[in-house]
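The material for today's practical consists of a large collection of protein records. A record pairs a protein's sequence with a compact description of its fold. Instead of coordinates, the fold is spelled out as a row of discrete tokens. We will come back to this pairing of sequence and fold again and again. Here is such a record, shown just as it appears in the course material.
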Amino acid sequence: MKKITLFLAPLLFLVGLQAKPTQAIPQEEAYTIKTGTTMGHYQKPGAPIDMTYKSEKVDVNQTADINITLSTSVQYGTMSVSLKIDDKLTQETEVQENLTFDIQPNKKTFEIHLKVRGEEEGLYYIRLLCKNDKSSSSRMRAFAVPVYIGEDPKPKSKGILMKAMSGENLSISKAVETIRTLDE
């Protein structure tokens, strides 16, 4: 055991020296740009779609850049995306409410660039309902991208806020359900 430890310790030290440190985000930029991803996180059975976003935190009446990247592990098919922007946000770019992307083996990531503006301070959301159509099965996945308007944005929801037993916030999103009966 000691021989293995003596052999592996210098090797691990050299590997650690070769590792590239991550670049630090400047303090101002870290405050104004919020990022998030679903990659590597638990997901319910559904569409094999992941999302990464960058959301710019801005003051009231300023335009925020929102960059969303959707990716899938499916080789072929179509991805349909339904966008819903909170009522208190004004869309500044021409992005359709319903988008369709063709999935190919060499094209499995898709970007959506939005510019939105808020006239009231608050935490708002852009909701996405993504559907992956492949042959006879259709699977869906819902996402919510936060938009931060003002100094101390708080959710402007008048609905019931729910929390899971673990303390995680639960959001209510639009969904489509298909019920089939088995004929015997």
Remarks:
- The helical segments are 2-18, 27-32.
- The longest helix spans residues 2-18.
